[in-house]
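EI: anyone free to look at a 91-residue chain?
SC: sure, send it
EI:
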Amino acid sequence: MALDTAKKETIVKEYGRKEGDTGSSEVQIALLSTRIAELTEHLKMHKKDHASRLGLLKLVGQRRRLMRYLKRTQKESYLKLIAALEIRDNI
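SC: here you go
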């Protein structure tokens, strides 16, 4: 269920702070959000795929920790990111 290279590159270009930025919190959150959306669609069709459901929960937890860190350190960037990704601010 990994993302293909072309999709990753577009996300990195859109949310990266500079060219080639793959490690910033914004990029990591955007990549995780895309993977979460794809896994959610997969689980709508395959309701009994409990291994993927566990992976989804781990990804959601990882994204939540990154969002908490970003909110604590760079509030303006966090607010722009959740608006762009249409994620609720429940942290």
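EI: The CA atoms of residues 70 and 78 lie 6 Å apart.
SC: 👍
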